[in-house]
Write a structure and sequence with these properties.
The complex is a heterodimer of chains A (about 110) and B (about 120). Chain A has no helices and 11 strands. Chain A has about 110 residues and is mainly β. Chain B has about 120 residues and is mainly beta. Chain B has no helices and 11 strands. In chain B, the strands form 2 sheets. In chain B, strands 2, 4, 5, 6, 9, 10 and 11 form a 7-stranded mixed β-sheet that branches. In chain B, strands 1-3-8-7 form a 4-stranded antiparallel β-sheet, with no helix packed on it. Classes of the chains: A mainly beta (about 110), B mainly beta (about 120). Chains A and B meet through strand 5 and strand 10 of A and strand 5 and strand 10 of B.
Amino acid sequence: RKEVEQDPGPFNVPEGATVAFNCTYSNSASQSFFWYRQDCRKEPKLLMSVYSSGNEDGRFTAQLNRASQYISLLIRDSKLSDSATYLCVSINDYKLSFGAGTTVTVRA
Amino acid sequence: EAGVAQSPRYKIIEKRQSVAFWCNPISGHATLYWYQQILGQGPKLLIQFQNNGVVDDSQLPKDRFSAERLKGVDSTLKIQPAKLEDSAVYLCASSLDGTGPGNTIYFGEGSWLTVV
């Protein structure tokens, strides 16, 4: 079983909509998590860190559910520029495990 | 602040040839990572250095891949001989000091390898 699993999508949403998707992790010892954003043919860039129950940064909200071992990312008021692949990352000790990513496409 | 620098950006080689990628991390970053990202997949760690020592190389195919970071600054990743399945983006990343809270990992733009 993969350490981190994500719904690949794509999630196609209109501008202004809210979109949410989950990431499940298999290692209950994972201490913290990240969401990275990766644009087509570009490198991953950190979107937000999740160390406790959750984190909010503007239109983006991440929530961590340790009991069910998943992290969610919610994007409010979607912009065209939010179109990207969102990579979920878990950390156990020093080791990062990446999911395969969830693709979001925001249409005008 | 300068980011993680990688070269070459693109490389096409025939199978069984060799290739080398270079990475210069952000100044002062002790931890350096090499990831392999195959199209449609998430990045997979190949090797992690802390200064010039190897922290984790458990997923590095050591029969054909090698990496070094001799002076604890820049690093090279070599593939010899290359196979078709090595076609991927090779991402170098660095962080100030590992993966603890507050240690953001920054990625370079990647070196795109096509093996034909």
